[in-house]
Every structure is written in structure tokens, then in C-alpha cells.
Design goal:
The complex is a heterodimer of chains A (68) and B (878).
Chain A lengths: L3 E4 L2 H11 L8 E3 L3 H6 L6 E8 L3 E10 L1
Chain B lengths: L18 H7 L50 E10 L4 H10 L11 H16 L5 H13 L13 E4 L3 E4 L2 E3 L1 H10 L2 H6 L13 E7 L8 E2 L5 E2 L2 H21 L4 H19 L20 H5 L5 H6 L7 E8 L7 E5 H4 L3 E5 L5 H10 L7 E5 L5 E3 L5 H7 L5 E5 L5 E5 L9 E9 L4 E3 L4 H4 L7 E5 L4 H10 L21 H10 L4 E3 H8 L12 E3 L2 E5 H6 L8 E4 L19 E5 L2 E4 L4 H4 L5 H10 L1 H22 L12 H26 L11 H28 L4 H8 L5 H9 L2 E2 L1 E2 L2 E2 L24 E2 L9 H36 L3 E2 L5 E2 L5 E3 L19 H15 L1
Parallel strand pairs in B: 8-16, 9-15
Antiparallel strand pairs in B: 1-5, 2-3, 3-4, 6-7, 8-17, 10-13, 11-12, 11-13, 14-15, 14-17, 18-20, 19-20, 21-22, 22-23, 24-27, 25-26, 28-29, 29-30
The chains are: A alpha+beta (68), B alpha+beta (878).
The structure holds magnesium ion (MG) and zinc ion (3 copies).
Chain lengths: 68, 878
């Protein structure tokens, strides 16, 4: 039910931000106390990659910044 | 990248105004309720004091020295004799009173508790979170304390009576007592209650000083009789000052407590209604005529209020509104504008050496001959009204650099709009066609995007005033450009009703059409030459309907699809379909099949979709214009009507319908008998009652379908209603069934009707009767007429539908408002992301696939398939 959530390493975060030409703060957010964040043990400031099924594209990647 | 703004708002802080601040911002104390003296001059320290600003043209403001129109107005104040509750804070005061000690005024929590909550509030504020939850727990916990931890005072529960009365046991608390108590609350405790003691001390919720709004926001108007009529707010202020004075006099004269309390209550009433004249439990203050006064809240609140009425929505110039009516001879991108309106709306021409002669012609014709001019603006910027008498003079004087405000004329670009403007096709750019009479004329094919009909609908028209605006309207908003809906990627503009019936009659099966008729049918289209005839009869060439239609199709069009009337047989017989439902277009020739909604109808048209995407929007528009005109001509030539006797079925069919229904009723009776005997086979997951209901509903539904089937077959394929239903022009087979066969079961919330009397629906039936006719089954048809009980059930079912639509429209309207507010500033960027104005990413790829729904076949991403089909078809035909 819950789509795949993974923590991006520093390199990946850098290239992600570069790709979109943005600061971390411009990403969508997710709270640390979100159950899925607790499960993957992400910290505040981490960027999460979510791979989920999409009705239009088959599969879509969404990135979220973990906040307090 | 976060875009920079010229000036950034750091923060906005809301607070309460203290009495001291009220006095500080006041330019005068107002002590008298009078406004003007006998000479019509504002009285000093009255409500119209010239220090509060001026509205009479001759006077100067005593505060800033400016004239009416320049002076923004200045606040005054009234010293209230006794404090009164501010109605907006009545609930807050209740909460505070219940949370603080009645003797020492401290918050009824221990020091450690206070510290803990304060900590929580401060962290929440720092990260920008809402503190509502913490504050609510503070109030809840404090209320539980029965004895003050600081002075040991026993607490008494506060009772609150709407709108502004507070009781301690039976004893009534006066606003003065409340204010005294609130004053005692220490600043530290105020902060724990979620308020900022610097900008919002609790006692400021009880008013001792009332600000008097500037005269400029409550101007008096002079009636034609020369009498002055004051603004509602002024009226209310007069009331307040009068009561305030009486109160003071009585108190100084040592009046009994009872009278004082009465006056106090009256003062409270006037101040309350001054702030909000629609508080529940308070009778609204009324004008002498009985009209409720519009006081402060009423000016701001609601649809006509300052926010929604004046700031979010405004009235504009260069616009017109009138009833719409149809004109199938106009192109879809035209709009018929009444001459009267065309003479009122103007477009400003800059006179140059290229258009000076044209401009002179307009001016020469003056303001009352169509295409004329109403004003000219001379080189020095002076505006001169063109009249019959000065026109010749002006014509001579015109030179380059002048401006001429000429009438709207044919070909001008205007914006046309119908409310509710729910999607972007609700406002489109049309070309003007000036016509006689008083309505806007619109091609019926352009109705679907506006959701317009001609039962009295009105529409608005706006005239863009600059070249840029006109260019933008033409490029972005032109009707041609909006044929495809971004919602589903298909054409939203297309044939409706008679266009469909007409083309269906023309193209269905083979019809011989001789030359004069063929020419007449195509007279209004762009077709200039007839194609090779289908054959000759008695030496005379004839064509068939499919050929006539083919002549308006673009060359090289390849398309095959199943028409609306296709019955989706197990195995499609394709070209051999006996209903002529398999449409084949080869190289722009309709080879097979009948034209119906699927072919040219709005929302569904396959042909239009293809033409738009392969030949461009202009060709698509031409095709719509041609097809609708051809449709109208065809239906007029063949004749098409529907009357009450078209609903008649033969007596033999009538008997068969009666039998079918009787048999169904018989089966229902058997079901009920089985139910009563407990022999009914229960459906899984259903109770016995539900099982019975479902079986009956199914049985009766089948009976109605059977009746419809018999009726439909009896009416035959030549019947107008059948043609309309089959071609998808209007109505459905269900409508036909109900008209000629059987109306069927009436339902409330999806169930058979059961409410009414105890145990039965109507006194005509026995208690507990579960039979078909006792529970709302209407076996008559509309043509036959309903029996009294059937009529009654039908009214019940019909009412539900009415209520449903009313509720649905209001709910979806509000939903739409909230959605638009939330989404209006989102933008798809060049990199495919969706971002808001701060550059925050909302979607990493628009719609997750980055596709524009308008570009694919009806919103799918299968354009590639249609390309392959086209290539294959082209090769085959070669
Ligand atoms: Mg209407
Ligand atoms: Zn002034
Ligand atoms: Zn106390
Ligand atoms: Zn078929």
C-alpha cells in the first residue's frame, strides 16, 4: 500500500537540486513524525525519493524534504 | 530561483486597539448627535464635524486643510459613559472569565504548568505553527481548577447568555466588573492564553471609547427634494450618542439602579448593532422604513461586501449585457451585436495618415448613425463630444495625433462571457457582427462551452481597448482556438440538436438528391462545385446524401469509427452493418455509415477532433460552420417535427405492454407471497427485507424496459423521437419509454417509496401492502396519463431530483471557489514542473506524465495510433 520511500545521499540531492535549479526549501515537505519517515529512519533535512504508481505515467518519482 | 518582489511585506500583526490609542488617533471628541445646523453647515463636535473630513465640495477639512476628494477623512471618538462588551469578542471574554480567578485575576494554573504551556506556545510561534491547540488546552485545564492556587478563592462557574450577558451563579456581571477583572490579569498570564499583552490586553475587548469613522466613509446624500439623507452608520452613531447622553443625565441625577441597568443594556444594544447588525439573538436595528441597517460587519461580509464585492470583483466600462438568441447563419466565431449597443461601445482609433480618411467618415456620421463616432480627443488631450451639429466642423479639424472614439463595427474583436465562468471557454473572443434588434446573437454550435441556451439567458460583452489587448484576445481567446477542451482533449464546440438530426437524415442510408436540391443544401457553404454524381435517372444527375456531406469534408481525410447508433454486436459487420453504423471516410469521401453525434456532435465528434489536429483550427471552424449550416438546411428540406400523436402506439402494442406489466406485477405478488411464507431465497449479505426489495425493483425495472422495447419497436425507426434518440441529437430511449411505454418505479434515495402514513404510503392502500402500485410503481405512460396515486408518487420522486440539483449546484459552486483560490497561481514551467509564485514545487512533472490533454486523442496519449492508421489508410487507398 505504501509506495517506496528512500533517502537520497548527498550526491543525489545535489544533482536533484541542480536539475530543477532550486533550493532544498522549494521541495514539497514531509514531517519527521510521519510513520513512513520513522520507518526508514530519515532525519530532518534529508530528502526522500518516493516512487509511486501513477495513473497517467505508470510510475512517477516525487521528492520531499523532511521537516520537524 | 525565488522571484524578488519590489517591496516585501515582512509581517502583518493583528491586535486590539486600546482606549488610549482610540483617543490618540481621534481628531475630536463627538458629543452631540446633531449633524448640520439650520444653514446646512456641519456642527462642531457633531457627527459631521469638519475635522472628521469633508464631503461638501465647497468646504475644507479643518484637520488637514484639503478639499473634499483629497482629504482621506479622520477618526473622531465617543467617550462611552459606561463600558460595553465588543460583540466580536463575547466568546473570547467568556473563555477568559472561566480561566481566571474571580478575585485576583490570575490564570488558574500553577506556575510550572504556565511555564510549560508558555514554552510550547513560543516554540510553535517560532516555527510558524498554529498555537490554537495549546491555547485551547490552557483554557480547558484552567477551567477545571476550582480553587485559586494563589489567593485560595473558591471559583464560581460563569454562565454565558447570548449575546453579551454573563452570570456568576444568579448574579449578573456588568461590563464594568468584567473590565475591572480583565485588567487584573498579569501580562505573563495573558501570554499563556495565547495573546500578546503589548498589542492585545484582554480588557480592551470591553469598550470604553468608541471610534467615530471619518465622514468620508459615511457620506450623506442630498435627495432631489433638497432633503439630506444620512448613511446607516451615521444613524447608528446618532443612536449611540443619544443613549450615552441619557445615561449620563440619569446617572448624574441619581436614577434608580433598574433604570440605569436598562439604559446600559440599551447602550450595549446600539454598540452591538453598530458593529454587527446580524447577531443571532439580537433584533436587527431598522431604518424608519423597516429596512435593516447596513452597519460595519454588513459592509464587509458576504458576496456584496467589501472583500468579495468591491475588491475581488469590480464593475467595468466598455461592457454590455443582454439576452441571447440563436442565429445559425452566423459563424461560430461571430457574435451578433444590437446596433443600439454598437453605438454605445467605442474603440479608440489613433488618427494617422493611413486612417485619417476613415476616421473622418466616422466623425462625419456623428453619434447616431452606425458606424459613427461619439468623441474625439484633440491633439492637446481635450475630449470633445461629437454631436450632429459640430460633426462637420470636427471633420475639418481632424489631424494626425488626434483620437477618435468610433462605434463598434463588423469584424471588431470582443470578449463574450456567460456566468458562471467555470472554465476558460466561458470567456472567448468573438468577431462583431452588428445586427438590428435587441439581443446578442450566437451560433447554437457555440453554446456548449458557455453552457448557454435561449430560454432567457443573458451574456456579457467586453470591448478590449488597446492593440495589445485585442491581439491577445485574438491569439489566445479566439473561438477557433478553443474548439478543443483542455478537460478531455476533444472538441467542445460542435453540432447540437437539429444539426445532428439534420445530418443524420441526410446521410442515413441512400437518398437520391437532384441538382436543384443539392445546390440548395450547399448554398450557404464554401463548396463551389458539385462532385461527380452518383448516377443518372431519366438523364438527370443525382447525388446521395453521403456525397453531399463529403463535399464539406477536407480532402485527404481518412477515418473509420463506429457511430453512436452502433449496437456493438458480437462481431461488427463493418461495412455490412444493417444499421449503417460503421462510418468510413476515405480521402475526404464518406463511403459508409451515418453521421450522428459521434461524428459531428459537441463533446463527441471524431471528425472534428481529427480535422482540428490534422488540418488546424481554422479548417475545423470552417467545417463546423459548413456542417451546422448543411445540417440546418437538410432538416428544413426534409421536414422534421414531433407531436403528441408521435407518442401513440398501436392498440396491439398497447395490449402487449399491458400484458408485460401485468406479468411483472404477478411475479411481484408471488415474491411477496414467498416472502410472507418465509420461502424467499435470501441474497448473500442482504436481509430478508432487502432481498425482497431488490427482487421487486429488478422485476419492475425489467417490466419497464420490456414496455419501452415494445413501444420503441412499435414507433419504428421513422419516428422523430426515435431518430433523435438514436442519432444522439436529443433525448434517450428512456425518455421514449416513459412517454410511450411505462414511466416506471419512482424512488426516494434509491428505494421504493415507503413514507407517508403509518405502514402505508397513501390511504388508498392497505397497511403493509408491499405491492408494486402501493410503493410507487407508475405503470402508465406520460401519453396515457397517470392515475391520481401514480401522479402523487411521481411528484415525490420528481421533488427529490429537484432538491438534488439545487444542493449539488450550490455545493459544487463553493467547491469550485475554494479550488480556484487554491490553484489559481500555479504555473507549468518550461522544465515541466508545476510551481507556485514563490517557486515552490507542487508537481515534478505536470500531471506526472507531462502531457497536454488537449494534444492527444480525447485526452489519451495514443496519437501515435491515429498517425499509423492514417498512413496505412493512405497506402491502401493508393
Ligand atoms: Mg437557460
Ligand atoms: Zn482632512
Ligand atoms: Zn486568586
Ligand atoms: Zn455495428
Amino acid at each position: 500500500m505504501v509506495p517506496c520511500h528512500e533517502i537520497l545521499d548527498e550526491e543525489e540531492v545535489k544533482s536533484l537540486l541542480e536539475r530543477y535549479g532550486i533550493e532544498k526549501e522549494q521541495l514539497p515537505k514531509i514531517k519527521v513524525k510521519d510513520p513512513v519517515i520513522k520507518e526508514i529512519k530519515a532525519q530532518v533535512g534529508d530528502v526522500i525519493k518516493i516512487t509511486r504508481k501513477s495513473a497517467t505515467a505508470g510510475e512517477a518519482n516525487i521528492y520531499r524534504l523532511v521537516i520537524g | 530561483m525565488i522571484r524578488s518582489v519590489p517591496k516585501k511585506i515582512g509581517q502583518i500583526k493583528f491586535g486590539l486597539i486600546s482606549p488610549r490609542e482610540f483617543r490618540k488617533m481621534s481628531v475630536t471628541r463627538v458629543i452631540t448627535a446633531d449633524t448640520y445646523d439650520d444653514d446646512g453647515f456641519p456642527i462642531e463636535m457633531g457627527l459631521m464635524d469638519t475635522r472628521l473630513g469633508v464631503i461638501d465640495p465647497g468646504l475644507r477639512c479643518k484637520t488637514c486643510g484639503q478639499r473634499a476628494g483629497e482629504c482621506p477623512g479622520h477618526f473622531g471618538h465617543i467617550e462611552l459613559v459606561a463600558p460595553v462588551i465588543h460583540i466580536g469578542f463575547a466568546k473570547l471574554i467568556r473563555k477568559i472569565l472561566r480561566a481566571v480567578c474571580r478575585s485576583c485575576g490570575r490564570l488558574l494554573l500553577t506556575e510550572t504548568e504556565k511555564e510549560r504551556y508558555l514554552d510550547e506556545i513560543r516554540t510553535n510561534l517560532k516555527i510558524g505553527n498554529s498555537i490554537d491547540d495549546v491555547v485551547n488546552t490552557v483554557f480547558k485545564e484552567a477551567r477545571k481548577t476550582k480553587k485559586c492556587p494563589y489567593c485560595d478563592e473558591e471559583q464560581i462557574d460563569i454562565k454565558f447568555e447570548k449575546p453579551t450577558t454573563y452570570y456568576e451563579d444568579k448574579h449578573k456581571l456588568m461590563p464594568a466588573d468584567i473590565r475591572d477583572l480583565l485588567e487584573k490579569i498579569p501580562d505573563e498570564d495573558v501570554e499563556v492564553m495565547g495573546m500578546d499583552p503589548v498589542s492585545a490586553r484582554p480588557e480592551w475587548t470591553v469598550l470604553t471609547v468608541l471610534p467615530v469613522p471619518p465622514v468620508t466613509m459615511r457620506p450623506s446624500i442630498t435627495l432631489e427634494s433638497g432633503q439630506r439623507s444620512e448613511d446607516d452608520i451615521t444613524h447608528k452613531l446618532v443612536d449611540i450618542i443619544r443613549i450615552n447622553q441619557r445615561f449620563q443625565e440619569n446617572r448624574e441625577a441619581g436614577a434608580p439602579q433598574l433604570i440605569i441597568e436598562d439604559l446600559w443594556e440599551l447602550l450595549q444594544y446600539h454598540v452591538t448593532t453598530f458593529i454587527d447588525n446580524a447577531v443571532s439573538g439580537v433584533p436587527p436595528a431598522r431604518h424608519r422604513s423597516g429596512r435593516p441597517l447596513k452597519t460595519l460587519s454588513q459592509r464587509l461580509k458576504g458576496k456584496e461586501g467589501r472583500f468579495r464585492g468591491s475588491l475581488s470583483g469590480k464593475r467595468v466600462n466598455f461592457s454590455a449585457r443582454t439576452v441571447i438568441s440563436p442565429d445559425p447563419n452566423l459563424s461560430i466565431c461571430e457574435v451578433g451585436v444590437p446596433e443600439e449597443i454598437a453605438k454605445e461601445l467605442t474603440i479608440t482609433m489613433n488618427v494617422t495618415r493611413h486612417n485619417i480618411n476613415e476616421a473622418k467618415e466616422y466623425v462625419a456620421r456623428g453619434p447616431s448613425n452606425h458606424p459613427g463616432a461619439n468623441y474625439v480627443v484633440r491633439g492637446d488631450g481635450r475630449r470633445v463630444k461629437v454631436t450632429e451639429s459640430n460633426a462637420p466642423e470636427l471633420v475639418e479639424a481632424i489631424e494626425t495625433g488626434w483620437k477618435v472614439e468610433r462605434h463598434l463595427k463588423d469584424g471588431d474583436i470582443v470578449l463574450f462571457n456567460r456566468q458562471p465562468s467555470l472554465h476558460r471557454m466561458s470567456i472567448m473572443a468573438h468577431e462583431v457582427k452588428v445586427l438590428p434588434d435587441k439581443t446578442f446573437r450566437l451560433n447554437p454550435a457555440a453554446c456548449p462551452p458557455y453552457n448557454a441556451d435561449f430560454d432567457g439567458d443573458e451574456m456579457n460583452l467586453h470591448v478590449p481597448q488597446t492593440e495589445e489587448a485585442r491581439a491577445e484576445a485574438k491569439i489566445l481567446m479566439h473561438v477557433e482556438h478553443n474548439i478543443l477542451s483542455p478537460r478531455f482533449g476533444g472538441p467542445i464546440i460542435g453540432g447540437i440538436h437539429d444539426h445532428i438530426s439534420g445530418l443524420y437524415l441526410l446521410t442515413h442510408k441512400d437518398k437520391k438528391i437532384y441538382k436543384p436540391e443539392a445546390l440548395e443544401l450547399l448554398k450557404k457553404s464554401r463548396v463551389k462545385e458539385l462532385m461527380e454524381p452518383a448516377g443518372y435517372e431519366n438523364g438527370m444527375p443525382y447525388w446521395n446524401g453521403k456525397q453531399i456531406f463529403s463535399m464539406i469534408l477536407p480532402e485527404g481525410l481518412h477515418l473509420t469509427f463506429q457511430a453512436e447508433m452502433c449496437e456493438h454486436c458480437e462481431e461488427c459487420k463493418r461495412e455490412g452493418c444493417e444499421r449503417d453504423a460503421y462510418v468510413v471516410i476515405e480521402d475526404g469521401i464518406l463511403k459508409n455509415g451515418s453521421i450522428d453525434v459521434k461524428a459531428i456532435g459537441s463533446f463527441k465528434s471524431k471528425i472534428l477532433d481529427k480535422i482540428y489536429k490534422e488540418y488546424g483550427e481554422e479548417r475545423a471552424r470552417m467545417f463546423i460552420d459548413d456542417a451546422t449550416r448543411l445540417g440546418i438546411r437538410a432538416i428544413m428540406r426534409m421536414g422534421f417535427s414531433f407531436g403528441i400523436n408521435d407518442e401513440d402506439v398501436s392498440s396491439e402494442a398497447d395490449v402487449r405492454i399491458g400484458e408485460a406489466i401485468y406479468e411483472a406485477e404477478e411475479r411481484v405478488r408471488k415474491l411477496i407471497m414467498a416472502y410472507n411464507a418465509g420461502e424467499l431465497e435470501q441474497l448473500p449479505g442482504r436481509s430478508m427485507d432487502e432481498t425482497l426489495e431488490m427482487n421487486i425493483l429488478q422485476e419492475l425495472g425489467r417490466a419497464r424496459d420490456a414496455a419501452g422495447e415494445i413501444a420503441g419497436r412499435n414507433l419504428g425507426l421513422e419516428n422523430s423521437a426515435v431518430i433523435m434518440a438514436q442519432s444522439g441529437a436529443r433525448g434517450s430511449m428512456l425518455n421514449l419509454t416513459q412517454m410511450a411505454g411505462c414511466v416506471g418505479q419512482q424512488a426516494v434515495r434509491g428505494e421504493r417509496i415507503r413514507r407517508g402514513y403509518a405502514g402505508r404510503t397513501l390511504p388508498h392502500f392497505e397497511v403493509g401492502d408491499l405491492g408494486a402500485d402501493a410503493r410507487g410503481f407508475v405503470k402508465s405512460s406520460y401519453k396515457k396519463g397517470l392515475s391520481p396515486t401514480e401522479y402523487f408518487f411521481h411528484a415525490i420522486g420528481g421533488r427529490e431530483g429537484l432538491v438534488d440539483t439545487a444542493v449539488r449546484t450550490s455545493q459544487s459552486g463553493y467547491l469550485q471557489r475554494r479550488m480556484v483560490n487554491a490553484l489559481q497561481d500555479l504555473e507549468v514551467q518550461y522544465d515541466g514542473t508545476v510551481r507556485d509564485t514563490r517557486g515552490m514545487i507542487v508537481q515534478f512533472m505536470y500531471g506526472e506524465d507531462g502531457l497536454d490533454p488537449m494534444k492527444g486523442d480525447f485526452g489519451t496519449r495514443e496519437s501515435i495510433r491515429s498517425i499509423i492508421n492514417t498512413v496505412v489508410a493512405k497506402r491502401e487507398s493508393r
